[in-house]
Amino acid sequence: MVEGEVLLSVKDIYKTFGGVEALRGASLDIAKGQVTALVGDNGAGKSTFIKVIMGVHQPTSGSLHLNGAKTVIPDPESARKHGLEAIYQDLALVGTFDLASNFFLGRELTQSYLGGLVKVKDTDRMRSEAVRVLKERVGIDIGNPYASAYVMSGGQRQALAIGRAIHSDAQLIIMDEPTAALGVEETERVLQIIERVKEQGLTVLIISHNLEHVFRCADTIAVMHRGQVTTHLNKHEATRQDIVAHIMGSKQTLA
Q1: pLDDT tens digits for range 153-186
Q2: Highest mean pLDDT: which of 139-153, 154-168, 219-233?
C-alpha cells in the first residue's frame, strides 16, 4: 500500500535466466519522499529485482515507469542519468583512493587553463565539497580526508557511498543491506544516516534481512517470495510476525 505520489512504478516484471525464472510478475510502487523496505528470504529475487531497476539486467517482460512516464533503462549509466543510484554491499569504492577520489569517482571536478585547452583535476575543491556534503547532509565527520578507503571503518565507507549518491541529486537511492557486517556502533551510525536522509525528503529503497532495522527506518515494507512481491504494507499495519509469515510464504495476499 503506497500513500503519496509514486516516483517509480515497477510493473509485472518477469526475468528468466535460461530455464530459471527469477522474477515472476513482480510489481512495486515506490512513493516519493518515503523509505521503502524490500525484504525476503535468500533466493526470493530481491537482487535481480534491483538490478533490473538499475539496468544491470534487462527484464524478459514488464515495464518501469518513472514519474509516470514509461522508461527504458538499458544499462547502469542510463539509470544514473535518470537519477537512480544503487549502493551495493561492496559500495563500489576503490580501496587505494582517498575520500575525494572515491566521492567523485567518474565525476571528477576540473580546473581549466590556457583558455580551456588544458584541464586538471581540482583535488582541493573535490575534497572540500566531499567533506561539506558528509558533514551537512549525511551528518558525519569522516576523519582524515587524505586516508584511503582501505583504512576507513565500515560505517565511514557506507557514509561515503551514501553521501556520493546524495550529491549526485539522485531521485531514488537504493541501499542493498546497508548494515551488513557492521558492528553495533557502526550499525547505529548508519541507521541514523538513513533517518537523516529520510528527513531531507529523499526517496530510498532498502533491501535488508534485519526486520528491526526495517521497522525503525522504513515507511512501508514490501515482501518478495519466489520472484513476486506478495505484499506491500505500511509498517504500522503489520507486525514482525506478519512480515515473517509473508517471507515464509504462509500469507499470499497482496495489500
Answers
A1: 888 999 999 999 999 889 999 999 999 888 899 9
A2: 219-233
When computed from its CA atoms, the radius of gyration of the chain, rounded to whole angstroms, is: 19
CATH 3.40.50.300 fits 6-83+171-248, yes or no: yes
Determine if the pTM surpasses 0.85. Answer: yes
DSSP 98-144: BHHHHHTTTS--EEEEGGGTEEEE-HHHHHHHHHHHIIIII----S-
Is the four-CA dihedral 174, 177, 183, 187 of positive or negative sign? positive
Domain boundaries, the chain: 6-83+171-248
Cα dihedral sign, 194-198-200-204: positive
Please state, as a whole number, how many other Cβ atoms lie within 10 Å of the Cβ of residue 223.
Answer: 30
pLDDT digits (tens, 9 = 90+) for 240-250: 999 999 999 87
